[in-house]
Amino acid sequence: MANVKEQEPLEIECSIEKALSVIGGKWSFLVLRELFCGRKRFGELQKAISKVSPKALTDTLRHLENQEVLVRTVYPTVPVTVEYELTEKGHSLHKIIKEMKHWGSYWA
């Protein structure tokens, strides 16, 4: 029996996979929806997205910040004020999310 070398799986770059990896998990879409209306504080986001836990929201915001979709600004107040705002990259997702909203209202 000949020694057969296992081949490494071929990686194909898929633009959709890349986009989804930038956007992140399910809460990201709702965070983006809120930030399309302008900058928001953590508490405002949590109130608007009632089912998200503080940990999930924090993780989502960190992910979107690391992907340069939003910026986090900290103001030296007591207590500290933190605001989140979309970058140009984040705003560029608006049309895509809007189309998903239309699709969902028609088909879902």
Automatic annotation (TrEMBL):
The keyword Transcription applies. InterPro entries: HTH_HxlR (IPR002577), WH-like_DNA-bd_sf (IPR036388), WH_DNA-bd_sf (IPR036390). SUPFAM superfamilies: Winged helix' DNA-binding domain (SSF46785). Residues 14-108 form the HTH hxlR-type domain. Transmembrane segments: none annotated. The keyword Transmembrane does not apply. Keywords: DNA-binding, Transcription, Transcription regulation. It comes from the Bacteria. This is Winged helix-turn-helix transcriptional regulator. It comes from Halalkalibacter alkalisediminis. The lineage of its organism: Bacteria, Bacillati, Bacillota, Bacilli, Bacillales.
